[in-house]
Amino acid sequence: DSDPVGFDSLDLNERRGRSTDAELDRRDGTRTSEALTPAAAARDEFQEELVIRPLHSGDIYASFQFRTLWDTDFLQEGQKVSHYRLFPKSLGQVLSKFSVRELHISFTQGFWRTMQWGQPFIPSPPGAELWVWFHDTVSDVDGNWKELTNVLSGIFCASLNFIDLTNTVQPSASFKPLGLGNATDHRFLRYATLPREIVCTENLTPWKKLLPCGSKAGLAVLLKSEKLFHSSFHSQAVHIRPVCQDEQCTSKAWELRQTLNVVFDLYTAGQGKKEWSLFKMFSRTLTEACPLATSSKVYVDITDNPELFELSPATPLLSQAVVLGDRRTYSVYDLSRAETFGQLRSLNLLLRWKGDGEMLRPLLHAERYVAGFGLQTGEIHTVIYNNHPYRAFPVLLMDSVPWYLQLYIHTLTVTSKSRDNKPSYIHYQPAKDRHRPHLLEMLIQLPPHSMTEVTVQFERALLKWTEYTPDPNHGFYVGSSVVSALVPSMVAMNTNFTQDQPLFSSFVPVKEESSYFVRVYTEPLLVNLPTPDFSMPYNVICLTCTVVAVGYGSFYNLLTRTFQVDEPSLPLAKRLANLIRRIRGVPLLT
Amino acid sequence: MDYYNLLTTCAFIHLLVSIPYAYSNYVENKAGQFFSSGHTNNWAVLVCTSRFWFNYRHVANTLSVYRSVKRLGIPDSHIVLMLADDMACNYRNPKPATVFSHKNMELNVYGDDVEVDYRGYEVTVENFLRVLTGRLPPSTPRSKRLLSDDRSNILIYLTGHGGNGFLKFQDSEEISNMELADAFEQMWQKRRYNELLFIIDTCQGASMYERFYSPNLMALASSQVGEDSLSHQPDLAIGVHLMDKYTFYLLEFLEEVHPASQANMNDLFKVCPQSQCVSTPGHRTDLFQRNPGSVLITDFFGSVRKVEITKDTINLTSSLKPLIQRSGSGDMQIESLTYVDQLPVAEIIHQNAIQGLSYSIMTEGTPVNF
């Protein structure tokens, strides 16, 4: 039959282009058009994969990654990219208009529990997080940042327009670019989080529309919102960066990764039974690969197989990958081969637990909480655990605290094993009321097998009454702290960048074999600020008006009122009688 | 006899001649009706103004109108949906990513393909009035703008808690009926609508349209001044009331409407009589120029486009330019690119020495000493 994908891609292009199309077309008077040669069209490719990792608590972790790689340059002068195929046009136009070198945006519902679930493939903090590296040709980074957040709020249906200078920071050492680049001048980096931001179907819908096959074919058919949001953790992200095109790394290509991480809970989604299948998790099964994808694979982590659980249908394909410092074995289901789907033409993986096992403790773990009582002062405690038995390693802790929690940096203490631990690098930018948040970055060396505690005292500010949210008694959120570290690896990491690596192991570039880069986010904090009683203006007006009316009114009456004798009016009969009496000269009736 | 025969034949011939004439008149009338409404595009602004979990029904109201409007053809790019709080993914919702309108969870009005333009704290009186009048900051994206013109029919639906002459936004501010009337007048003077249908489902809703004074406005409300609009039915599993009575029966009515339906406004005025709604729905048509009986429901709720078929041929000239060679193509680059070190410890510590100098200049006061 006629090519269904061709028709759909027209539809998708129209939808993808709608948000920024007209604005940019109006600005650009001359449109250069390139004749599309077959060579140009084949230069973009799309890969999709799903990794399923059973967790020791009985939960199951599914991580989707969709990668579009395009050999083009959005930032080249004089060359406007106008023909889009697999890469979504709305994002491409955003990149060229704002000269963005790297863009990372994530929307997360729930908190990643490192101690129970291990390390995620792509970490993300609760709420929305956006960090962007701009190109060094940009002259007004703040202006570009403001417009970029507005455009992204339209694309993703999120209230990212609340990102402004009061919650944006410029980290000086954290968040180095994950893509290609030589110079890293941190003046071109902007980072912001919105811990209050919710994720729901209205964010998933435009996210799915950015995929080449939409949600109609391939792995994306599994993304049904009713199942995805009924989970302990849900995170969807978009990462755009320039990468090496090949091993020699002489030219660069642009990579768009859309990732979706979800952890299904044993008791709410699993009904208490330690038995998972694709249908139970997503209420769908896989029937075909995305026709536009060059590779479409499902990986199931069977390192703990066969003692712990059994997997069906069996597959002969096995793959080993070194990820997060550990060598894991995966069963691979290649969706581009027809025999994967079997006779029923649908793939439904079944995992059945057989026993319980011990989880390897994650080497790096962090927590944060607020101590103290009352609505005036408090103390923020950040606790970082190094669970390695004999290796010490440095971590970079970045804290961004809103201006209304006034930090007293002279009370900052860093203790490890009940001894003072002096950080080798500190960068502190104090807050300016209503203009800038606090930024605190520290490089701390963690001793082996220890707990390091960072404490700082703060005072809560009284906001102006218009600055309170409509529900101020809920509290105010403080974004998560970010702990970045190079953790010693148990197995040698793979430093070769090859195209054949599975996507989940090639997200963070690896420079040396002995350690791997990890980022851990702490909990966001919820603090109560002293909140006035908003019904007081109404009460005061009522009370004041009553007092004025009763007090002043009575006083005024007493001073200005004169009393007169008032003749009551008589009924008609008596009046006639009085008339006759007056004529007669006799006293009148009353 | 002859004369009688002549008369009958004349009458018969006259009848025969007039039938096609009457028929063409009828066709012309039909065609005239087809073109009589005068609008070329449809927009909808759907606003839920209440926050907090117990106001679930207001979000369900707005989403059911959104669902009907989308089903009848208005695309997402022409709908501005404002929801003041998130009920679907609220932690108190026992079935996440769903908003139900009927008890026993029969109809999920949230669906799988919803795009909310203004959500949470963004739903304020100021943003609502800015959307209506078009005075938005220049960096506002397209999906958040009401880009209507003078041939647009706009449907505006408001729901929430209200009183005599005001509507409450998010429990912290109010919009008065005078402000709303002035906003519509601004829209009329800036030629931002052709005809406007205003529906409000709040307590004492009729007070909100009392002050309108711009032409081509038709208004419906769920209750008169002095009356309260009531909610329909609670669901014991979810624990809150799911819909308001007026919008529930409005949804039932709209489910019967399809894009080719000929239902008109008089049918809409009959939705939810007092026997069903307990409150008395009201409407106002004195500012509207056409007869409500000739106004189709799909003029406001649907997106029925007028199509003119032309038999002229149009030549499209192709502007094919020769393939432009990319300047600085890959094979000329000799320098190899590298990835940046994610945590360059030595570099960071070295950076400290330089940072210390610039830091003390930047901040007023004593530099931090450790």
TrEMBL record, chain A:
It holds the Pfam family Gpi16. Residues 1-33 are annotated as: Disordered. Residues 12-31 have a biased composition (Basic and acidic residues). It comes from the Eukaryota. One of its GO terms (cellular component) is GPI-anchor transamidase complex. GO terms for biological process: attachment of GPI anchor to protein. This is Phosphatidylinositol glycan anchor biosynthesis, class T. It comes from Cyprinus carpio carpio.
UniProtKB/TrEMBL annotation, chain B:
Pfam families: Peptidase_C13. The active site is at 161, 203 (nucleophile). The keyword Signal applies. The keyword Nucleotide-binding does not apply. One of its GO terms (biological process) is proteolysis. GO terms for molecular function: GPI-anchor transamidase activity. Residues 1-24 form the signal peptide. Keywords: GPI-anchor biosynthesis, Signal. Pathway: Glycolipid biosynthesis; glycosylphosphatidylinositol-anchor biosynthesis. One of its GO terms (cellular component) is GPI-anchor transamidase complex. Belongs to the peptidase C13 family. Heteropentamer. Part of the GPI-anchor transamidase complex, consisting of PIGK, PIGT, PIGS, PIGU and GAA1. Interacts with GPAA1. Interacts with PIGT; this interaction, via a disulfide link, stabilizes the expression of GAA1 and PIGK and links them to PIGS. This is GPI-anchor transamidase.
